[in-house]
What does this fold into?
Amino acid sequence: MTWLIRPSDAARRSPTGSPAAAAIGERAAATLAALEPSRGQHQLLFVYGTGLGIGLHIALLQLALFRSWSGSLFTVGATVLFATLTLALWQTVFPRFAHYALPWRIVCQTLVALVSLTVISILLTEARTLLLGGPSILQPYDGGDRTIVISADSIRQAPLIFALVPVVPTAVIIIVGFNQHWWRIFLLQGRQEELRELAVSAQLAALRAQVNPHFLFNSLNSIAQLIATDPAKAEVCVERLGAIYRYLLHRAHADFVPLAEELSVAESYLEIERARFGEALTVEEKIDARARGLLLPSLILQPLVENAVKHGISPKIGGGRVTIEAHVHGSDLRLAVKDTGVGVRDEQSVFEHGVGLRNVRDRLLRLYGADYAPEVVSRPGDGTTVTLRIPVAQGSA
It folds into this structure.
């Protein structure tokens, strides 16, 4: 049986450092490249597709009522001309009003559209009269009344005709509209989510990168205090530090590591501190056997131990004890670091002591959300306990 940490979807992939930033730039560039060159093509398809749908609707009604193929074809051609006018207004005229306030911009665009459409409509009506006959705007009909006879067969077919006529035009509009707009929205949402994941991954990598120099600085400080008083111990501590950094280099690209490896790093750090504190620092571990094989974010335990020593035990006269506990509770791994140090009055202030705990909090928030923020319990003079709750999922080996 194996256990795996269950990271949130937003942080399953976590490239380190600059590769993540480069990936974000590449994805953003790919998104723009996919959209910008085809903007004019999308506009053409949308305008002419919608115009064709409307034209088909009117043409089919004319065909059903007047049985005139020529009139129906003319109507379809007229809608193409209207679509061309629409495209010309969108691309050349309407943008000229971009610097106007919204109400005035709409007024100007409405006036231009009404005038343009009226002129085109009158010209098309006169062209229809010349080509197909019929009444004219310029030469109004001056004859007598006419009686139009609708056959009984036409009346019987009318409900079916009016039911079926909108089907094809509406289908055209639906298909064109979806593929030109809604599909692009879905595509953009997917790419936006990918970019968000990459951004979160880059943030996590940056946070993790903060730990290394911070850890090195504090360890060297501890070793420096031993050089004058106990050079042999200082040499052993340097070897310990070297072993830790060999491990860190080996696992540099690992986002999640077994708890056993995290414990090894923390124990090596505590050995360095015990060389400095001597008997004033005691260490205790209470680790559930099942928890050792769990994967958890790398370098998540060491900052807790470091904080306990530096801000809990170090300021306390007589030293104290650091206890590391880990056990599986339901679907969570609970990892706690307790110290019997000086404690604090404001429990949230522990995140302001330095980089370590703040880094741990920020990484957990980005990985799992606000529900998995570290829990801090502290009493002045009695010590501090920092507990991490990390979601786990059970799987078969």
